[in-house]
Design brief:
The protein is mainly alpha-helical. It has five helices and no strands.
Length: about 160
Protein backbone atom coordinates (compact mmCIF):
# COMPACT_ATOMS: atom_id res chain seq x y z
CA UNK A 1 0.00 0.00 0.00
CA UNK A 2 2.78 2.45 0.83
CA UNK A 3 4.50 1.75 -2.51
CA UNK A 4 1.24 2.60 -4.28
CA UNK A 5 0.91 5.85 -2.30
CA UNK A 6 4.49 6.85 -3.04
CA UNK A 7 4.04 6.10 -6.74
CA UNK A 8 0.67 7.86 -6.90
CA UNK A 9 1.79 10.97 -5.06
CA UNK A 10 5.00 11.15 -7.11
CA UNK A 11 3.24 10.84 -10.47
CA UNK A 12 0.18 12.93 -9.63
CA UNK A 13 2.16 15.52 -7.69
CA UNK A 14 4.70 15.65 -10.50
CA UNK A 15 1.95 16.46 -13.00
CA UNK A 16 0.83 19.30 -10.75
CA UNK A 17 4.35 20.68 -10.35
CA UNK A 18 4.95 20.49 -14.09
CA UNK A 19 1.65 22.24 -14.86
CA UNK A 20 2.33 24.90 -12.20
CA UNK A 21 5.82 25.52 -13.59
CA UNK A 22 4.51 25.90 -17.14
CA UNK A 23 1.53 28.07 -16.11
CA UNK A 24 3.80 30.32 -14.07
CA UNK A 25 6.24 30.67 -16.97
CA UNK A 26 3.49 31.47 -19.45
CA UNK A 27 1.18 33.79 -17.54
CA UNK A 28 3.58 35.20 -14.90
CA UNK A 29 0.90 35.60 -12.23
CA UNK A 30 1.67 37.67 -9.19
CA UNK A 31 2.69 36.17 -5.87
CA UNK A 32 -0.87 35.93 -4.43
CA UNK A 33 -2.17 34.10 -7.49
CA UNK A 34 0.81 31.74 -7.47
CA UNK A 35 0.28 30.95 -3.78
CA UNK A 36 -3.45 30.34 -4.30
CA UNK A 37 -2.80 28.12 -7.32
CA UNK A 38 -0.15 26.20 -5.37
CA UNK A 39 -2.52 25.63 -2.44
CA UNK A 40 -5.27 24.52 -4.84
CA UNK A 41 -2.96 22.07 -6.59
CA UNK A 42 -1.70 20.68 -3.28
CA UNK A 43 -5.26 20.17 -2.08
CA UNK A 44 -6.26 18.54 -5.37
CA UNK A 45 -3.23 16.24 -5.18
CA UNK A 46 -4.38 15.04 -1.78
CA UNK A 47 -8.12 15.01 -2.64
CA UNK A 48 -8.31 11.33 -3.71
CA UNK A 49 -6.68 10.31 -0.44
CA UNK A 50 -9.00 12.55 1.55
CA UNK A 51 -12.02 11.06 -0.22
CA UNK A 52 -10.89 7.57 0.68
CA UNK A 53 -10.27 8.50 4.32
CA UNK A 54 -13.66 10.21 4.61
CA UNK A 55 -15.41 7.20 3.07
CA UNK A 56 -13.72 4.88 5.55
CA UNK A 57 -14.82 7.13 8.41
CA UNK A 58 -18.44 6.94 7.23
CA UNK A 59 -18.54 10.57 6.15
CA UNK A 60 -19.99 9.87 2.70
CA UNK A 61 -21.47 13.34 2.11
CA UNK A 62 -18.17 15.05 2.88
CA UNK A 63 -16.37 12.54 0.67
CA UNK A 64 -18.77 13.27 -2.18
CA UNK A 65 -18.28 17.01 -1.66
CA UNK A 66 -14.53 16.59 -2.21
CA UNK A 67 -14.80 13.79 -4.79
CA UNK A 68 -16.61 15.80 -7.47
CA UNK A 69 -14.09 18.61 -7.84
CA UNK A 70 -11.19 16.29 -7.02
CA UNK A 71 -11.90 13.74 -9.74
CA UNK A 72 -12.93 16.35 -12.30
CA UNK A 73 -9.64 18.08 -11.61
CA UNK A 74 -7.78 14.78 -11.91
CA UNK A 75 -9.07 14.33 -15.45
CA UNK A 76 -8.33 17.93 -16.36
CA UNK A 77 -4.78 17.96 -15.00
CA UNK A 78 -3.99 14.65 -16.72
CA UNK A 79 -5.12 15.99 -20.10
CA UNK A 80 -3.38 19.33 -19.53
CA UNK A 81 -0.07 17.82 -18.41
CA UNK A 82 -0.17 15.26 -21.23
CA UNK A 83 -0.76 17.97 -23.84
CA UNK A 84 2.04 20.09 -22.36
CA UNK A 85 4.39 17.12 -22.30
CA UNK A 86 3.60 16.27 -25.93
CA UNK A 87 4.26 19.83 -27.06
CA UNK A 88 7.47 19.99 -25.03
CA UNK A 89 8.61 16.66 -26.49
CA UNK A 90 8.05 18.05 -30.00
CA UNK A 91 9.97 21.19 -29.05
CA UNK A 92 12.91 19.11 -27.74
CA UNK A 93 12.86 16.96 -30.89
CA UNK A 94 13.10 20.10 -33.03
CA UNK A 95 15.99 21.41 -30.92
CA UNK A 96 17.84 18.11 -31.28
CA UNK A 97 17.17 18.05 -35.00
CA UNK A 98 18.44 21.62 -35.19
CA UNK A 99 21.77 20.46 -33.71
CA UNK A 100 22.27 17.97 -36.54
CA UNK A 101 20.42 19.37 -39.55
CA UNK A 102 19.94 23.07 -38.76
CA UNK A 103 16.18 22.97 -39.18
CA UNK A 104 14.11 25.84 -37.86
CA UNK A 105 11.82 25.31 -34.87
CA UNK A 106 8.28 26.47 -35.72
CA UNK A 107 7.45 29.77 -34.03
CA UNK A 108 4.39 28.42 -32.23
CA UNK A 109 6.59 25.93 -30.35
CA UNK A 110 8.84 28.64 -28.96
CA UNK A 111 6.11 30.98 -27.79
CA UNK A 112 3.82 30.83 -24.76
CA UNK A 113 0.99 29.82 -27.06
CA UNK A 114 1.84 26.14 -26.50
CA UNK A 115 0.72 26.38 -22.88
CA UNK A 116 -2.36 28.33 -23.88
CA UNK A 117 -3.25 25.75 -26.54
CA UNK A 118 -2.76 22.90 -24.08
CA UNK A 119 -4.97 24.73 -21.59
CA UNK A 120 -7.74 25.21 -24.16
CA UNK A 121 -7.53 21.57 -25.25
CA UNK A 122 -7.73 20.42 -21.62
CA UNK A 123 -10.72 22.65 -20.88
CA UNK A 124 -12.58 21.54 -24.02
CA UNK A 125 -11.81 17.85 -23.47
CA UNK A 126 -12.81 18.05 -19.81
CA UNK A 127 -16.13 19.72 -20.63
CA UNK A 128 -16.84 17.08 -23.26
CA UNK A 129 -15.86 14.28 -20.87
CA UNK A 130 -18.12 15.68 -18.15
CA UNK A 131 -21.01 15.85 -20.61
CA UNK A 132 -20.41 12.29 -21.79
CA UNK A 133 -20.08 10.98 -18.24
CA UNK A 134 -23.52 12.37 -17.45
CA UNK A 135 -24.99 10.51 -20.46
CA UNK A 136 -24.33 6.94 -19.34
CA UNK A 137 -26.15 4.34 -21.40
CA UNK A 138 -26.73 0.79 -20.30
CA UNK A 139 -27.60 -2.26 -22.31
CA UNK A 140 -29.17 -5.44 -21.03
CA UNK A 141 -28.04 -8.66 -22.62
CA UNK A 142 -29.40 -12.08 -21.76
CA UNK A 143 -26.94 -14.93 -22.07
CA UNK A 144 -28.21 -18.47 -21.56
CA UNK A 145 -25.61 -20.96 -20.45
CA UNK A 146 -25.58 -24.38 -18.85
CA UNK A 147 -22.19 -23.73 -17.22
CA UNK A 148 -23.66 -21.88 -14.25
CA UNK A 149 -25.13 -23.66 -11.27
CA UNK A 150 -28.96 -23.95 -11.36
CA UNK A 151 -28.99 -22.21 -7.97
CA UNK A 152 -27.85 -19.00 -9.68
CA UNK A 153 -30.97 -17.63 -11.32
CA UNK A 154 -29.67 -14.21 -12.22
CA UNK A 155 -26.13 -12.83 -12.55
CA UNK A 156 -25.47 -9.14 -13.09
CA UNK A 157 -22.19 -8.03 -14.69
CA UNK A 158 -21.43 -4.34 -14.82
Amino acid sequence: MSLFLITFLSAYGGMHLYALYRLHGTFSPGRPATVLLSIWMLFMTLAPLLVRLLERSGMDRSALFIAWPGYLWMGFIFIFASALFLLDAIRVAYRLANCFHSCQTPAFLTSPITCECALMVAIAASCYAFYEARQIRSEQVVINTSKLSPAIRKLRIV
